[in-house]
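Re: that backbone. Tokens:
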């Protein structure tokens, strides 16, 4: 029996960069191949390199290689759809869906559009893209990371099928030891303007006035040298050079995280934070902002961590609360360790298989008993 073909289309960066959405692309492509589908991984990248993370039996198609140009994505992609006789198309990002510009010729092919962050962020970031997508959006199921993201979708997408599937969290090999206090806390993520460093540094410095001799290690790559200088200047202005440390990038995040007492994650914007997920998975109680997307889904206030408002004083109060209460840290550590099960890779794989199988072979409702027969039975 001939395999059904799924085209998974991603951004050009999959050939030479790393990131959460790129890792998810490889995860999904490899898994659907394991499920027995013929998977075609598609991009349009000037870097002509097959990503090593893809399984060997996956057909990798870089549309750039056709004419050594990133122009003309739509006609090249349409030819590929015809050539591969696609049974389903999965678009990673809505702008790729728009660029494909599929006409009515392909209306019978089911599509899945994935959102790897807050949906409203994408449409705000790319002006007028909502109107363009609306004119093309047909036979499509939208995939979001959290149920709370559903109201953030445009109305025309909400009217159609929407499926919530979070990202998987890899099984961790390390756990923190809540019985042994190190008086050290941690932040681990890529460091950009959205990560809340302007809150974290003064809040931690304020907390030191109540709970001295604690240390904060900040792990991650800075978005720019200018940003690194700005935040180091902020540390110095708070007089916290001895207690706040920028540690760079770790090659073993979960091992690193397991060596701390709790995590402070004051990010103002997230889709699905890998750093926060890994912190919870190793059993670290976590502090985050109540109004931050994703973070307020992962952290259960009073359960596996604390949520606070986005002010220096409230964040400092939450930090002091965990610094000063070892029993609370132990209780929250036990709850945090349960986080892994909610996002276990085997469960996420199962959800994706159900979605793809149902898109390609939608179940039909059973034929209902005629109403005349129901009336006869009732009498």
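Recovered sequence:
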């Amino acid at each position: 029996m001939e395999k059904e073909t799924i085209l998974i289309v991603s951004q050009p960066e999959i050939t030479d960069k790393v990131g959460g959405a790129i890792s998810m692309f490889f995860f999904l492509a490899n898994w659907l191949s394991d499920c027995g589908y013929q998977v075609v991984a598609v991009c349009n990248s000037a870097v002509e390199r097959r990503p090593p993370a893809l399984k060997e039996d996956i057909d990798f198609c870089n549309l750039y290689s056709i004419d050594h140009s990133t122009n003309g994505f739509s006609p090249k992609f349409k030819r590929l759809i015809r050539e591969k006789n696609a049974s389903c198309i999965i678009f990673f990002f809505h702008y790729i869906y728009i660029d494909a510009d599929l006409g009515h010729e392909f209306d019978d092919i089911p599509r899945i559009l994935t959102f790897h962050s807050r949906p409203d962020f994408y449409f705000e970031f790319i002006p007028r893209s909502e109107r363009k997508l609306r004119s093309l959006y047909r036979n499509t199921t939208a995939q979001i990371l959290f149920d709370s993201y559903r109201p953030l979708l445009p109305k025309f997408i909400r009217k159609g099928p929407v499926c919530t599937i979070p990202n998987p969290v890899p099984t961790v090999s390390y756990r923190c030891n809540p019985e042994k206090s190190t008086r050290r806390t941690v932040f681990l993520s890529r460091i950009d303007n959205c990560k809340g460093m302007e809150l974290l540094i003064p809040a931690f410095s304020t907390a030191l006035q109540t709970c001295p001799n604690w240390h904060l290690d900040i792990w991650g790559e800075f978005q720019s040298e200018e940003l690194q200088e700005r935040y180091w200047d902020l540390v110095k202005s708070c007089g916290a050079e001895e207690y706040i440390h920028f540690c760079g990038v770790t090659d073993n995040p979960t091992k690193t995280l397991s060596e701390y007492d709790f995590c402070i994650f004051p990010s103002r914007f997230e889709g699905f934070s890998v750093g926060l997920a890994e912190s919870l998975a190793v059993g670290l109680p976590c502090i985050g902002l109540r109004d931050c997307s994703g973070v307020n889904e992962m952290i259960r206030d009073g359960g596996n961590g604390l949520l606070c408002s986005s002010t220096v004083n409230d964040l400092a109060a939450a930090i002091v609360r965990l610094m000063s209460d070892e029993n609370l840290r132990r209780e929250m550590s036990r709850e945090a360790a349960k986080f892994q099960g909610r996002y276990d890779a085997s469960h996420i794989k199962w959800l994706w298989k159900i979605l793809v199988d149902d898109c390609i072979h939608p179940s039909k409702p059973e034929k209902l008993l005629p109403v005349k027969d129901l009336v006869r039975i009732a009498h």
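The first strand starts at residue 5 and ends at 9. Residues 120 and 152 are 5 Å apart (CA to CA).
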